[in-house]
Each structure stands twice: as structure tokens, then as C-alpha cells.
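FORM 12-B: Structure-to-Sequence Request
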């Protein structure tokens, strides 16, 4: 199993946009066979950091997901949303 760790630096003025963006990815990761573990925020300290964790059965299945995400309409919409809102 491979667990991916993504660190986001969030614009504090775009929290609602980031929340929408993050919610888009949970079913998308699962659509491609992964398990999304959610988003985590620090309880103290910086308030503009979020961590996402998701796992795939193997590095090969993660790489398949990555490649497929660049061609999937829902993933492309999520990428576009992030670019448009700069969340």
C-alpha cells in the first residue's frame, strides 16, 4: 500500500473555495480505486495549512490514477476550479 501526503497552503480569504475543491477530490480518488482519508488541519499554529492523505493498493495503481486524472472530465473540472479560484 502507498499513502500519499499532500500539503496545501491555503489562502485564508479562499477557505470556502478550498473546502469545495477538497470535497471534489474525495470521490474522485475513490473512483480510481484509492481510499481518501480526509483533510487535516493543525489544531495550533499556522491556520493556512491543510494536509490530505489518500492511499492506493500499490505505486502502480497510484500512477494509473495520476495518468487517468489528466483525462477524466471530473478531475479536469476540479483542476480548473482550483486554477480559476486560486484556492
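FORM 12-B RESPONSE
SEQUENCE OUT:
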Amino acid at each position: 500500500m502507498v499513502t500519499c501526503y499532500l500539503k496545501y497552503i491555503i489562502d485564508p480569504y479562499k477557505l470556502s473555495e478550498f473546502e469545495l475543491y477538497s470535497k471534489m477530490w474525495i470521490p474522485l480518488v475513490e473512483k480510481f480505486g484509492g481510499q481518501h482519508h480526509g483533510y487535516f488541519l493543525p489544531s495550533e499554529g499556522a491556520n493556512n495549512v491543510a494536509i490530505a492523505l489518500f492511499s492506493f493498493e500499490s505505486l502502480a495503481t497510484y500512477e494509473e490514477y495520476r495518468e487517468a486524472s489528466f483525462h477524466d472530465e471530473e478531475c479536469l473540472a476540479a483542476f480548473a476550479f482550483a486554477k480559476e479560484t486560486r484556492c
